Amino acid sequence: QVQLVESGGGLVQTGGSLRLSCAASGRTFDKYTMGWFRQAPGKEREEVARFWWSSDDTRFADFVKGRFTISRANTKDTLYLQMSSLEPEDTAVYYCNAVHYGGVEYWGQGTQVTVSS
Questions:
Q1: What is the per-residue pLDDT for 87?
Q2: Total Cβ atoms within 10 A of residue 83
Q3: Of 30, 31, 33, 34, which Cα lies nearest the Cα of 21?
Q4: Most CB atoms closer than 10 Å: which of 16, 34, 36, 49?
Q5: CA end-to-end span of the chain, whole Å?
Q6: pLDDT at residue 28 in the model
């Protein structure tokens, strides 16, 4: 069973930075893509970034391009989302997601990010 555990959320001022971590376990992830989603109050969950474990390819939503980066740890199955130049509009619960090439999908429990103006 795949488990995804997010950490690193918190309160930050506008313009600040945070790094979110997603510790993944239960499988080898070479046949998975992993991503970060977010959901703000009253809004639908939206994809922020996606990472292809086998190739290190990445994809970002337009609203975070140039501000966020995604990477993985070299020696453990941990995915990072480095967030910079944060804006109040980035306030949301951030979720880690893993999708097997065959379509099975897993979610973490989420971590709150709050950006104060």
A1: 97
A2: 25
A3: 34
A4: 36
A5: 40
A6: 83
